[in-house]
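Researcher: We're teaching a course module on how sequence relates to structure. For the next exercise, students receive a sequence and then see the predicted structure as tokens, so they can try to spot secondary structure elements on their own. Here is the exercise chain.
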Amino acid sequence: MSSIKEEKDFVVDVTEESISDMSLAEDLKSGTQNVLKYVSLLTLTVQNAALGLTMRMARTQKDLFIASTAVVVSEFVKLITCLVMVFIEEKSFKRWRTSLYDIVIKQPLDTLKVCVPSLVYTLQNNLIYVGATHLDAATCQVTYQLKILTTALFSVAMLNKKLFMLQWVALLLLFIGVAIVQLAQVNTTQVNPAGREQSPFFGFLAIFSACCLSGFAGVYFEKILKESDISVCMRNVQLSTFSIPIGLATMFLSSYSEVQEKGFFFGYTMLTWFVILLQALGGLLVAVVVKYSDNILKGFATSLAIVLSCIISVYAFQFHLTGQFALGAGLVIMSIFLYSKPASIHKKTNGEGIGKRTYEMKI
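Model: And here is the predicted structure for the students to work with:
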């Protein structure tokens, strides 16, 4: 009897230890996920704010670099980075070379699919530089959120995506917020910190066009990814394969005489190279970081980036924060949060799931 009792006590002790170990493992996992979540928030915020701020700084330097050359260099950097990432995935030079040949060269029709987004992305990147030349960083950051609206509309049209009522309300608020911000810029100075003339309206048209192109290209690229099992890195290699010659053609058509007179790398500084790296690697970095985040966190990061851009612009670019601008920016931030709410919230708003148990996403 005593031996049986000892065995029972041993089993109970082992069970308690197992439960304790499992609890500890879950706590460690939960703690790690929380750390990754906050690191993701910080990374997304810094990347969103840094690109807009540094691009504006670079476009207000004494010697203005040629934007079309920066787009080409950015695509070269992106291509090299993606080739390295594909090599890491394949883990050997032979498999890397074979994979590139089989997907990029032996499937010309599949590779041609990315020709359209390559052209669109190249034009979009050129337009963003134009916008940064004529708009301050804060206004540019707020206005560029219109890409949420254009992406949503193209998703509905091309992917038959269904939007909830609250999301449509969010898109309307976004449009109103951006309109208020743009009206606040009507009476702003027509000379940037470098002493060059700028046109806020021309800058707005450039950013709005970039948003339309971004929405179309993003949805088109998403459709391509869903229709095949080719990795994102390999698709980016295909994109850059077309983007580089398209970028060079754009440069020769728009800036040939300027490049011939001043040189390809005219006006390049450490800041210019930093902007190019941010533009080339920022999207890839965000793609990795988003793995550990969710829509709410991305919305929060975007909102923090807008606030951060406004604060830094006040001190770095003599930006005058008006009540009208604050109202417009506030509506844009509110719309971002509304649009990125979990699906369960949208369903409850639409009256779906009545009488059913609903589960909300926990942060």
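Model: If you want an answer key for the exercise: Residues 353-363 have pLDDT under 50 and may be disordered. The chain is about 80% helix and 0% strand.
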